[in-house]
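Design job #97: recover the sequence.
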């Protein structure tokens, strides 16, 4: 698979088959994350595999977060609310769930850069997963204090993302993209 094809074809997947992801595939995907760029090659990430007991607690907290936030929005269509609730029961049935955590930063530059480096690692590993016919969804629930506590993440660390991953049950169609010309600004 060519890189640009993977970038354009990768989809956020919200429903998964129960097929387990082999350990060597998990390690290969995570290893791809370690090749992300980072300031000073600090590699500011740790991968935290989430087991069944922690997963159950995380699903409960995820449902609470949704009900207290996104699902209260009157603008969100009812079908989207139902889909979010169904996904939150067990992360769409994804057989693999993990977090990407940044260590505590000690400088202003690290506070800025560590989450960016971890996000680059997340992008790398989702692309590597796609190449191996695995889908993923990158969740942003890590800022919630209850999630941080459950995952044992201290107050000075950052959860860059929580990823549910596995063989897609179905692959959604591509979402529209704003043309790059509309996202470009040139300076003199």
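Job complete. Output follows.
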């Amino acid at each position: 698979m060519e890189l640009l094809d993977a970038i354009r074809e990768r989809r956020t997947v919200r429903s998964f088959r129960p097929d387990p992801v082999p350990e060597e595939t998990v390690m290969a995907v995570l290893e791809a994350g370690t090749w992300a760029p980072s300031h000073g090659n600090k590699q500011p990430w740790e991968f935290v595999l989430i087991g069944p007991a922690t997963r159950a607690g995380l699903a409960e907290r995820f449902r609470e977060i949704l009900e207290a936030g996104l699902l209260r929005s009157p603008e969100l269509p009812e079908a989207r609310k139902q889909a979010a609730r169904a996904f939150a029961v067990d992360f769409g049935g994804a057989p693999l769930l993990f977090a990407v955590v940044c260590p505590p930063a000690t400088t202003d530059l690290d506070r800025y850069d560590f989450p960016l480096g971890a996000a680059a690692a997340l992008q790398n590993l989702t692309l590597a997963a796609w190449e191996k016919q695995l889908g993923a969804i990158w969740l942003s629930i890590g800022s919630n204090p209850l999630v941080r506590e459950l995952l044992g993440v201290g107050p000075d660390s950052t959860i860059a993302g929580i990823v549910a991953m596995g063989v897609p049950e179905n692959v959604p169609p591509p979402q529209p993209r704003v043309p790059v010309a509309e996202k470009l600004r040139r300076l003199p």
